[in-house]
Amino acid sequence: MLCEFTSTVAFGGNGQEVEVAPRRMGDEAVASQTGIPQLLMSNTLVLNGALFLGILALHTMLEDSSINNNYVSGILLAMALALLIKSADFFIEGAKGLAYRAGLPEVVIGLTIVSIGTSLPEILVTSTAAADVATNPEIGDLAIGGIYGSILVQITLILGLVVAFRGVKVRPSWLKRDGMIMFSSIGLLTVFLFTGEGLSRVEGVILMSLYIAYIYWLLSHRDEILEEELGDGEQVERKLDRTTAAYGFMVTSGLLLALFAAHHLVNVASDMAYAFNVPHAVIGTTVSGLGTSLPELTIAFLAAKRSQGVAIGTLIGSNITDPLLSIGFASVVYPLALTEASFALTAYVIIPATFVGTGVALLMMRSQYEFKQWEGVVLIFIYILFLAALAAERVGFLVL
To answer: Pairing between strand 5-11 and 235-239?
Structure first.
């Protein structure tokens, strides 16, 4: 006999929710659970379906030479980004529901499914781009630029917006554990990228293995992490409101739609780079990097409204996933390397800006273990300066 469970959870310092006291509800609650038929009529799935059909229609229109391709490409790029973000959210909710059904603790769900789920756009975009590197080497610039761009936009613009909205206290463990691992991960990726002939499959396996080791360490110390989080946790109610089949459908359809959107995003971004004579690394750092970071922006803002410090954990966790798992998996699909067209811009502007933004954010975390609102404005300003540097290089004011 199926029964429904509700869980009281607390929001703790790793940016995720942790389970406190699950309880069983009566049989009458089961009737309120929605299945696949109700899910098919949900607003989210209807929107995803509309975006899917819209992308197919616009792709057909691009084949008509009588239509302004640049205009249609811009709309197609926006729709692919929207579908990628919405389908990733759909996947996350479905995966979390299945994990609840399996009886996994909330802390395990947060450290694995949510952290990987919010980075699903980056994982799919980079791996999709890597699959095309053999025929189009410049696509590798898009993948590499997208990872560094995602890291930079999350640690400066998104974190800055969250902190400017509400000052946030920081636990010392954030800096000593996650913050240092984040910075070291970016450093190791950069070393691999500029040694040898780029990022090889072996180096990709090393990056992925380090991520797995990080997750394993967190899970093996989950009791201590849970105890720290519950010390100042804020309890909220969550419940399972869908059937197991519905959650499984959400995972499957969300992943398939995200793969479809990522494929079109990479293709359209590459075509626009050629059309406007813009380096692929710039498109990857700005359009792709910012677009694929929208799930983190949404989760960070929601968390900031409910609990001190939760938002930072969401962003730091994603910035560990991206330089280790996301690009590590992509380089296993096909080795990645910068082309001559984007090498100088990436090496002398994009990567240094990523290290500066990350370093400044960590220094702010160290200052009295608290982010002040004015520090959020500074982080936003750093990202604006980065965009100004890209624009200066584009018009010839900055020669590399």
So the answer is: antiparallel
**Number of DSSP helices (H) and strands (E) in the chain, helices first:** 21, 5
Distance of alpha carbon 185 from alpha carbon 258, whole angstroms:
26
Q: Dihedral of CA 91/93/99/102: which sign?
A: negative
Per residue in 125-150, pLDDT (tens digit) is: 888 888 889 888 888 888 898 899 88
As a whole number of Å, the CA-based R_g of the chain is 21
State the virtual CA torsion across 280, 283, 289, 290 in degrees, nearest 10: 180
pLDDT at 330 over 90: yes
Q: How far apart are CA 353 and CA 356, in angstroms?
A: 5
The rounded distance, in Å, linking the Cα atoms of 376 and 364 is 10
Residue type, position 233, single letter = G
Q: What is the pLDDT of residue 331?
A: 95
- DSSP, residue by residue, 138-157: THHHHHHHHHHHHHHIIIII
**Comparing C-alpha atoms, which of 363, 364, 317, 392 is closest to residue 154?**
317
Q: Measured between alpha carbons, how far is 129 from 149 in angstroms, rounded to an integer?
A: 15
CA dist list (Å): 386 to 264, 293, 345, 353, 379 = 27, 17, 12, 7, 11
How far are the Cα atoms of 57, 60, 79, 260 from residue 63, in angstroms, in the given order? Answer: 10, 6, 17, 19
> Pseudo-torsion of CA 319, 310, 106, 21, nearest 10°?
170
Torsion of the alpha carbons at 144, 211, 82 and 154, rounded to the nearest 10: -70
Q: Is the pLDDT of residue 2 over 80?
A: no
Structural domains of the chain, ranges and CATH numbers in brackets: 7-395 (1.20.1420.30)
How far is the C-alpha of 58 from the C-alpha of 244, rounded, in Å? 35
By percentage, how much of the chain surpasses pLDDT 90?
A: 22
The token pair at 224 is 């201590």
For the ranges 14-23, 315-324, 388-397, the lowest mean pLDDT is seen at 14-23
Q: What dihedral do alpha carbons 295, 325, 162, 105 form, nearest 10°?
A: 80
pLDDT value, residue 239: 61
Who's near 211: CB < 8 A, 6+ residues apart? 320, 321, 324, 325, 328
